[in-house]
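User: Before I run my own analysis I want an independent prediction to cross-check against. Here's the chain; please return only the structure tokens and, at the end, one sentence I can use as a sanity check.
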Amino acid sequence: MKKLSWLTPVTALALTACSSSTTPIADPNAVPEGTILKVALLETTDIHQNVLSYDYYGLKADTSLGLERTATLISAARAENPNNLLLDDGDAIQGTLLGDYQALAAPVTCSGTLAVYKVMNALKYDGASTGNHEFNYGLNFLSQITNTDFGLADVSKPNNCGAPNFPVVLSNVVGASTQKPIFNPYSLITKQFTATKPDGSNMTVKLNVGIMGFVPPQIMDWDQKSLAGKLVVNGVQESANKYVPELRGKGADLVVALSHGGLDASPYSPKMENGSLYLTSTGIDALMLGHAHLIFPKGKEVGAPAIDASLAALPTAQVDTVKGLVNGVPAVMAQSWGRRLGIIQMTLKYQSGKWVVQKDLTNVEARGFKYKDGTTIIDADASIAPLIDTEHKATLNYATQPLGTTTDFEMSAYFSLVGDVTAIQIVNQAQIDYVKTFINNSTDATLASYKSIPVISCSAPFKAGRNGPTDFTDVAPTATPGTPVGLQVRNPGDLYLYGNNNLQAVKIKGSDLKNWLETAAKQFGQIDPAMTAEQDLVPSYSTIYNYDVFYAENNALKYQIDVTQAPGKRIVNLTYAGKAIADGDDFIVATNDYRAGGGGNFPGIDGSKTIIKSPDANQAVVSDFVKKQGKITSAANGLGQSWSFVKVTTQGPVILRSAPGKLAVAQTLGLSRVKSEGALDASGFAKYAIDLSK
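Assistant: Structure tokens:
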């Protein structure tokens, strides 16, 4: 060996000895073959600023929801699984008056941090993605509250603003001009975990977890007013195929997709709203779902609710609703509003220099507040509420500001699916008033030519059970003798939930109206009159926001729904002003930008028929209309039922699931088809007997 002149004899001797040795020195940090690592991936999704167990519209506690209770589930899951990551699947910032207050009424400043992010920081989340509702308040607001430079010319660059202390990723949204992701498309999270060696002893190991995020392409329709020309949304599968290899190349041991979308087994399209199923072919190890507000897999607690009908209808060869597997990939959806915690427990074995998932040892759970015994609701984490006490009190003050209007009847949605319009008619009246005024005052020659076309309106019962038995609109009468208390700021938000929707109007034909109504009527199950077993009139509430109820002034529009017929063949006796509506008849429909732009996939309603794009939010339109009335009465604003069921006698019971204890509401309304209140189901809904012959 050539002598190294710069080495001392001793050093040279040592080097010579090392270089000639045939036995390498063992790395004390090396992971032995066969070492076992157990990891839990924890998910929240669709929190919608439900930080506390509180209903700002009803000004009352609601123990069925709230991130402060999810925090208790998180603590328990972490105790069970010390090796864990906590991730959020989006739709965190919007959905309650707390969200609207912080974004619209008194926007949080750069020096502040959004209430929900304060709590998520305290809970030490490891990562998150966005949902579609993160875009509702505009790109400047989203950029600020996440302290993210989107690289867009007309979006302000934030300067060290209050934001999440964890990475927020989004893989399928890019700038229209830059073609670069506005958020980091992925993040590689390195965790130190405790593993078990083959000899039974423990050792600390490093695990690299890659996370990606996806939103529905429909954000470009739903928030067109603030996103058009600025962003492009790519397909979820194409985006995953691009970034999964990058993550693997950077050393990701696990790749987790945070997909703000549900499961749809229709043929793949880059424009799918719920394309999560097709992420399972891209090489991911785990799938976290959101957007649909459903429970997946079926709850494991005693008396857990039945799996939603939309999930039960998926091909069993692809989707296992018990084990929580989608094409063999573990997947979880933790409902919404903080009501569940998704848990994917995985076992990894170190084999041939890498961690290998032991698929047969995977366990998936969507854990709810009653997970211990099926009856007892867990307590809230007492450390959470003080973190946002200031924001909570400010929201209460905002919610109770008077509008100067009274009402003599209860506006509720408990029985909106069997004909009650008390919570819908005032919305439709407000929208018609706005559109007619807009047309009459317009200097545009085309709009002026539409003055003779009937203006009708549609609105859905947005709060009618989608998120459980406490999720119903209920605006109580205000003008009782001796207590002339008026409506408040919170009430229009109860009537029209989505503060981000802007009013739009579309010009359609009678054939379009028929198709529109047929699509809305898909909400009902097909009732077999000869069946003696119990039948659900409404099998799933997951798309209740698509049940559009139409109305015309003086109740001139009438139609019936025959629920014994298959979808697409249910609308009969469709008339306007007493005359059957012909396919070529013209109508102007007041609606919202979500529906006018194609939201809900209503045939022919795709943005091409829009004639008015209002700068005003539907919720503000309702609020302004209510203020102008001074007094809202049942006779003028609550009895305009435009639709009814085709009468049919059934051999067995037909039921509607609604909030318990509300039979008197139906009786007060004169809804004779609501016969009685039955037992509670596993979700806490009461099963009301419905007589379709009435």
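Sanity check: The mean pLDDT is 93.
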